[in-house]
TrEMBL record, chain A:
Name of the protein in question: Heme exporter protein A
SUPFAM superfamilies: P-loop containing nucleoside triphosphate hydrolases
Organism name: Shinella fusca
Record-annotated ABC transporter domain positions: 3-210
Domain of life: Bacteria
Family: Belongs to the ABC transporter superfamily.
Automatic annotation (TrEMBL), chain B:
The keyword Kinase is annotated on this UniProt entry: no
TM regions (residue ranges): 12-37, 43-64, 85-108, 128-150, 157-182, 188-214
The protein, known as: Heme exporter protein B
Known function: Required for the export of heme to the periplasm for the biogenesis of c-type cytochromes.
Keywords from the named record: Cell inner membrane, Cell membrane, Cytochrome c-type biogenesis, Membrane, Transmembrane, Transmembrane helix, Transport
InterPro entries: Cyt_c_biogenesis_CcmB, Cyt_c_CcmB_bac
Major location category of this protein: membrane
Amino acid sequence: MRLVAEGLSATRGEDLIFRDIAFEIAGGEALVVKGPNGSGKSTLLRVLAGLLPARSGSAKLLAAPHAAERLSEAAHYLGHRNAMKRELTVEENLSFWKTFLGDMAGGAGVPVEEAVEAVGLGGIAHLPFGYLSAGQQRRMAMAKLLVAWRPVWILDEPTAALDAAAEDMFAGLVTAHLARGGIAIAATHQPLGLEGVQELRMTGFAGVAEEVW
Amino acid sequence: MIALLARDLKLSVRAGGGALIGVLFFMTVVAVIPFGVGPDLNLLSRIGPAILWIGALLASLLGLDRLFQAEREDGSLDLLLMQETPLVLTVFVKCVAHWIATGLPLVIASPLLGLFMNMDEVAIGATALTLLAGTPAITFIGAAGAGIAVALPRGGLLVSILVLPLAIPVLIFGVSAVYAAIEDPAPFLPPFLILIALNLFFAVIGPLAAAAALRLSSD
């Protein structure tokens, strides 16, 4: 399984955010997207997740065990917002996403209790999501990645609001995902503590300033 | 899909879900009419079906703007958009859940409010039946408006204004079917069947339009 992106460029309104982004990631590998604020990291990830149209270029999943028409169908997206309902309990939230997302071919999600244990918050799954602290909410949003199998993880600032221990825990989750043959793409400022990852440095608009748009 | 339906129904009865807001508004509107119009029983029973329908129409529009906005605010909408499941189907299920939570209580409350308006049993039955057939159409039309206004803060009134012209035919045929049931010469079935046809028509068009709007609104 390989994720190949070629000549990706994207605009927000009239402004060119980035252009000619190209990379190739094989199964079991991770890509860390780095760059200063406003350099287009989040935009790139949203383009990959199919939530923003690319101005040009494409990103495809090749030689996957299942035929996904779009990359987004084979991907988990963990954005700035947690995609969990404050009014529902953690358990209801996670079991909803587990059933709704379902598993892709080539893997299986873990049960909800196990996912909650894996993010180190066993025993509080009965609480409404809104009662949790920001860091705990973030961890529970990560548990969502575990309950349904997706080969590609697209992570936007996954460790914001997390303490050092939780960052280690998250690095462990990503490593385990890669060991299962998955792909991870993360935009982050903090070192994720991952071994042997590719790095993509976004230069931001300054890098393409010569381009007259 | 059943999971989505169950989750939306659960959310609607939890804090801030607003399932009862619509029916409370409906009751408030209809309950003050007799005070405003005065104790003329004949007049009340004559305008009763129309008042019930107008009240139900406005009450159904009330909570529609939150249909996708709540999903967007917490990021769930991104995940719904990404799935293999056709977005149209997701939107359709959300509409059904929204109707069960806000439309069905209106239908159930309407016989009680019919008594307020001094309506006889035939008129009450006909009103409840036409509301049952007509309110889903309002929800489906409203979904399209909610999809367009999803990115706008305070889009609530905008949704109502966008949706109202399309909901007018539903109101017209709903009310005329009730009057046809009460007054002898006019046949009940033709307007009622048109009402059902409108319902089916919007059940297809509404989710399609809403899905297209949601795809374009993502940022």
